[in-house]
Design brief:
With about 375 residues, this protein is an all-alpha fold. It contains 18 helices and no strands.
Length: about 375
Amino acid sequence: MGFNFKSHCTLALILRLILVAYADLHDKYFSVPYTDVDYKVYTDASRFLLSGKSPYERHTYRYTPLLALILTPNILLHSSFGKILFSLIDIIIAILMKHILMRGQCNDKTSGICALVWLYCPLIIVISTRGNADSVAVFLVLLTLNYLISDNPFLSGIIHGISVHFRLYPIAFSLVMYLGISDNHFLPNIRQIKLVSGCILSLGLCTLVSYYFYGYEFLHESLIYHLIRRDARHNFSVYFYMHYLSIEQQVLFDKWLTILPPVILLIALSFRYSRKKDLPFATLTQAMVMVTYNSVITSQYFFWYVSLLPLCLPYIKMRVRRLMILFIIWIGSQGLWLLDAYALEYGGLNSFQSIWISSLIFFVVNVKVLVEVINKYDNTELI
């Protein structure tokens, strides 16, 4: 029997729908819910919006009002609407991955197999079916890349502006996207002008409309908060313990410490991989840098670079055995952190220092994986 990508898409969707149905049962009978707490935040925000109030009246809602609008069927139709929508978007993302790969040097089978990495990745399946909305952000990033590679810079800019409005992190890809369609001249070309114009138009329009309805509250919760955030809760970030110890203090130094290294790396990677055909790999490495050096890291942040990995797999000249070893080490470092976090949350033990040490190990592992991936990347010919 030959490779049938459509059958895999159908199977992957069915698997997700089964987990969406299971989530309702799990949440009903178990004390630790399957559904992501953020999903409940989205739904509450949608409820406020439908009642004519601001979605930001829901404490901890720190997203675009567009998300609350999209998820109003959670209230009007069924509470699982959003989970089903995110699961469908997962499938669309896989189809888009295959399309992008086939625009390059990949044949139908290779591109399909690479897309299966996304379709069947347990992390992706669980996060989407728990109700996390990052699949929407991932779809917008990939759609931006698709139209940029297809030489439609204005539409690419439009979508990029929407993606930045929806989730702030894609702004880090702006420089490499701009450089990727240059003519190696000092002055910008018409494609670059179209890209920037499209981005400014859509981002400006989304921001103005949101500000018109919700004012400064929208700016603070969806934008400013993410720039000034200091989260002392335990998370994968290597910086969490520093924030925990200095939560009552206003330390300017720690802001420079957390912002400067990733900014330098993002700029360096933008210039290093500024060819159009290197755009997927450039965004992969930049997403890995953003997550690894972020002051707050949760599991859904891994969406940012796992979604870009399938686009680069044909060009990473690494043995399968080596790939599996790196994957096992990466998973193992997470398991070590989760063990310490469990001891704190459910065992009542003061394991903050152990969590910090585990975060350091996780940081080193991520840097090692990034270095290995960069060293093995070659887009001159397919494996």
